[in-house]
């Protein structure tokens, strides 16, 4: 096999492999959040802070020149992405304390609607009918899965309606973060981009923690290990890999692929938290995967054409 064909295969498949890694990593996020007894804003703050600290040395050693090349507009846009990410974490982590893992994780994935609308309006991305059909199919799966959660098959949470509303807000903020990444990752290397975004996110979350009056210290070792786990798993291998994929794939494809997160999170919640899904939840997960497959195949066919 020629070098050219090998490179061609790598270029074609690597972004989708990266998406698979990111989906598995982010699927652990809700479980780690549930395991932690710290306030939701504190969890979010330390997750992003530790992720930033893990990536910062590599950014300064390998990509120092990239920071100097960033324009004022780049800094402002990346900062806006960081603000959107902070608000996403703040609302979604709070949602996980009020409703079930299945409901929160599935509802937050309705961000695909916000992303599709924003990409069409602001990025002039062309979305094929098959892509739309796949996204709608996946969203139908989300509805079915959420109905299964509401039917009493799992613990609904202390305030499920409030938790669901916070998940919707998290979806909207997540879409803004994804769209900013789609624009900036076309010309900014991955590590400098995420360090700037995560730094802005950390500052915003710190301000929210201080305003809320939540303690930043005096947590047992178990909590610090959970904070670090959130940073390494969902942070580095989840959101950071996702940002790399945004430089190679359309935002609608990336967002649709993340609809696999509810499936992984629901399975982990079953095994680790004892949240038993209903048959509707299982069917919904299968429909979600079918929608993701349609979107991926639609993109592949369009590229071949």
UniProtKB/TrEMBL annotation:
Species annotation: Halococcus hamelinensis 100A6
Domain EamA: 19-146, 162-295
GO cellular component, as recorded: membrane
Location of this chain's protein in the cell: Membrane
InterPro entries recorded: AA-Vitamin_Transporters, EamA_dom, EmrE-like
Segments crossing the lipid bilayer: 12-32, 44-63, 75-95, 101-123, 135-159, 165-184, 191-212, 224-246, 253-274, 280-298
Membrane topology field: Multi-pass membrane protein
UniProt cross-references to PANTHER family, sorted A to Z: EAMA DOMAIN-CONTAINING PROTEIN, INNER MEMBRANE TRANSPORTER
Protein name: EamA domain-containing protein
Lineage summary: Archaea, Methanobacteriati, Methanobacteriota, Stenosarchaea group, Halobacteria
Superkingdom: Archaea
Residue ranges of coiled coil: none
Keywords: Membrane, Transmembrane, Transmembrane helix
């Amino acid at each position: 096999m020629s070098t050219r064909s090998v490179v061609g295969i790598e270029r074609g498949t690597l972004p989708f492999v990266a998406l698979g890694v990111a989906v598995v990593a982010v699927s652990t996020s809700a479980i780690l959040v549930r395991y932690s007894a710290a306030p939701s804003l504190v969890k979010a703050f330390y997750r992003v802070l530790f992720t930033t600290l893990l990536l910062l040395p590599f950014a300064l050693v390998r990509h120092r020149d990239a920071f100097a090349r960033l324009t004022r507009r780049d800094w402002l846009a990346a900062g806006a992405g960081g603000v959107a990410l902070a608000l996403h974490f703040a609302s979604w982590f709070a949602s996980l304390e009020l409703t079930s893992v299945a409901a929160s994780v599935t509802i937050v994935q309705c961000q695909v609607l916000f992303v599709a609308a924003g990409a069409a309006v602001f990025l002039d991305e062309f979305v094929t009918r098959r892509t739309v059909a796949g996204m709608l199919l996946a969203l139908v799966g989300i509805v079915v899965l959420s109905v299964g959660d509401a039917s009493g098959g799992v613990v609904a949470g202390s305030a499920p309606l409030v938790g669901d509303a916070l998940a919707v807000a998290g979806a909207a903020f997540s879409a803004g973060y994804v769209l900013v990444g789609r624009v900036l990752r076309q010309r900014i290397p991955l590590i400098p981009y995420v360090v700037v975004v995560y730094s802005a996110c950390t500052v915003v979350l710190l301000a929210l923690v201080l305003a809320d009056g939540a303690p930043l210290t005096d947590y047992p070792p178990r909590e610090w290990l959970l904070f670090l786990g959130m940073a390494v798993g969902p942070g580095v291998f989840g959101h950071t890999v996702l940002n790399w994929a945004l430089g190679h794939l359309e935002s609608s494809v990336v967002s649709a692929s993340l609809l696999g997160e509810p499936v992984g999170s629901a399975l982990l919640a079953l095994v680790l938290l004892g949240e038993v899904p209903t048959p509707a939840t299982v069917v919904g997960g299968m429909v979600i995967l079918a929608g993701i497959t349609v979107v991926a195949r639609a993109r592949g066919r369009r590229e071949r054409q």
